[in-house]
Structure formats: C-alpha cells, structure tokens
Amino acid sequence: MAFESLSAFLAMGGHGPYVWAAYGATAALLLGVTLHARAERRALLRDLRRRARREQRRGASTPDSHQEGHARES
Amino acid sequence: MWAFIHKLGSPKWFYGISARLSPWFWAAAALLIVVGSVWGLAFAPADYQQGNSFRIIYVHVPAAFLAQSIFVSMAIAGFVFMVWKIKVADMAAAMMAPLGAAMTFVALFSGAVWGVPTWGTWWMWDARLTSMLILLFLYFGVIALRGAFSSRDSASRAASVLAMVGVINIPIIKYSVDWWYTLHQPATFSVTSRPAMPVEMWVPLLIMVLGFYCFFIAVTLMRTRSEILRRESNKRWVRELAGEVT
C-alpha cells in the first residue's frame, strides 16, 4: 500500500480532486458505453421478437411463417 | 486464407463466432481494469515529482492509446470494406466511431485535469493536445458524415474515405511530442527500449492498457452484432433467430 489510511488514500496527498475527477469520468464513460451497448441489443431483440410474433399471427399458413422453420421452403 | 476472409465477412458467421468470443473479452476487460485501477490507485508508489496526481496516468494513457488505435482500426475496416465490399467491416467501423470519440474525450479530459496540478494549466495549444483535439473532431466528422446520406452505401463509402484520409493524423499525434516538444512529455512506452519507469509503476499501466483493449473488442463485437440484427433484419436467419428467442 502506498497510503497509511483511508483518508490519506482519498486525499491523494492534496491531489484528490484531480485524481478522482479523472477516474470518475473514465469509470462513468466505460459504464455508460457498456450499458448503452446492452440496452441497444435488448431493444433490437425485443423488436425482432415482436415482429416475428406479428408475422406468425398474421399468416400462420403462409410460407413465410416461422412455425415450421426451413422445412416449408419448397 | 480467402475462404477464411469470406467466412469472416458473412454476417451470419460473424454473429455466431462473436457470440462465443465476446464473454471472454468482457471478463478479461473487467478483471484487468479492476486489478489495474486498484493497483494504480492504491499500491503503485507516488511519483517523486508529481506526487499522487501521476496516478491519472493509469486512465489517461490507456484511453489515449485506444483513441488512436480505434481510429486506425476504423480506417483499416474502411479499407477492407472499400476493397472487398465486406459489409461486416463497415458495420464494425460504424460502431467503433462513437467509442473512439468517447476514448478521445477521456484522454483529453483526464489530461486536462492532470495538467492543472502538473503544468499549472488545463489547456495549452501544444502540438500533442491540439492533434488529439483534431482527432476528436475527426471522429465527430466520421459520425456526422455517416448520418448525412440517405443511401447507406454512400454513407459507408464517405465514412470509409474520411477514416482513411484522417488516419494521417495518427502519426502526427505520435511524433508531435518529438517534433514540437513544447508541453506534453514524450512517450512513456516504446517498443524498442525499456520503460523509463520502475516496474511497480508500469506493470499496472500495462494491465490497464490491455484491459482497455479488451473492453474495445468486447464493445465492438457486441455492437456489431446489434448492427447486424439491425441491417439484416429481413434476412431469413435473423428472422429464425428472433423466432427461436421467443
């Protein structure tokens, strides 16, 4: 450990505000990017599922339907 | 080799392989960044001149590395798209731009905050700082250009060209500290010589750099997969996938 106590660690020898601002901004951005990527993926999958269900309802008998997968392609 | 490239270029194949790879990159990124931060913040010794403000290096340098590497990756992806018409390359390039801009911002912000106690100023029109600011604007330019066309193909080609032209800024950033040595210190790491830092200072830095690279790969894989779903939503395999998940 480079520090003797928790308060010394937080104070960073008087440079606390600078160090914590830099780390805080970096952490916030990395986290933001991660959460955005996850939300984006979930929203897309939700839309695709909704569309698949809608198509299933609309034409259960058309060759486009998903009910029987590739088998219907003929 | 060609078969491999064409396979890699197939969105469906890419979607599958990236699903298997990406958890490893997420795990590695999380582990390396947590270990590197704790080590850098609490265990690395303070710098004898800069004191504890030097710990900012552990976020500043990895972010600056990534900011430049992402631009180069984007230019390479643009080249691959232009020459071989591989769509996945263009999708990946489109997803890299915002992350690159974010990393450039982190590098500039952490540098500015570090500059206050170290240089007594948060900004100066130093060559390194200015060329990094230009990099940020280049990222904005690539993002804006992509949004400015109604045809996706024109947008992709324009963004690829701007990325390939803009990559000239990267060697300028790299050598700016040697050509015009005004404020920013020269590179900490180089391939040819030993780091000018004690081991207990540069090992956490190396860990952070690797962690940031894993993060970049993880985010790019994940977002490229999303982009594949978006662009290929009418393809049969995507529809089947959506049906299965229900």
Automatic annotation (TrEMBL), chain A:
Region (Disordered): 50-74
Organism: Halomonas urmiana
Transmembrane segments annotated in the record for this chain: 20-39
The protein's name in its UniProt record: Heme exporter protein D
Pfam family, one: CcmD
Domain of life: Bacteria
GO-annotated biological processes: cytochrome c biosynthetic process; cytochrome complex assembly; heme transport
InterPro entries in alphabetical order: Haem_export_protD_CcmD (IPR007078), Heme_exporter_D (IPR052075)
TrEMBL record, chain B:
Keyword Transmembrane: yes
Keyword line: Cell inner membrane, Cell membrane, Cytochrome c-type biogenesis, Membrane, Transmembrane, Transmembrane helix, Transport
Cellular localisation: Cell inner membrane; Membrane
Domain Cytochrome c assembly protein: 19-184
UniProt membrane topology term: Multi-pass membrane protein
Highest taxon of the lineage: Bacteria
A Pfam family recorded for this sequence: Cytochrom_C_asm
GO BP, one annotated term: cytochrome complex assembly
Membrane spanning residue stretches: 21-44, 56-84, 96-117, 129-149, 161-181, 201-221
Role of this protein: Required for the export of heme to the periplasm for the biogenesis of c-type cytochromes.
Family annotation (PANTHER family): CYTOCHROME B_B6 PROTEIN-RELATED, HEME EXPORTER PROTEIN C
Identification of the protein by name: Heme exporter protein C
Lineage of origin: Bacteria, Pseudomonadati, Pseudomonadota, Gammaproteobacteria, Oceanospirillales
Gene transcribed to yield this protein: ccmC
